[in-house]
Design brief:
globular, 62 residues, mainly alpha, Diphtheria Toxin Repressor, domain 2, 0% strand
């Protein structure tokens, strides 16, 4: 089985993809920097998990 992500991470990521789809790429490092600019995220760990999920979804969409 794969890793299970929290609903907060999935929900937040999908909302951000809907709003800023043209800014996100399939590169994790780029997505981290974009997240710093477009969203206020409380912790580094949460930011990284959201960026990772966004990267995963962008790869699926391509």
């Amino acid at each position: 089985m794969g890793r299970i992500r929290q609903a907060l991470i999935k929900r937040t990521s999908m909302e951000l993809i809907k709003k800023y789809r043209d800014l996100f790429t399939t590169d994790f490092e780029t997505n981290k920097k974009v997240l710093e600019k477009v969203a206020v995220i409380s912790t580094k760990r949460l930011r990284n998990r959201i960026a990772g999920y966004i990267t995963h979804k962008m790869r699926q969409l391509q």
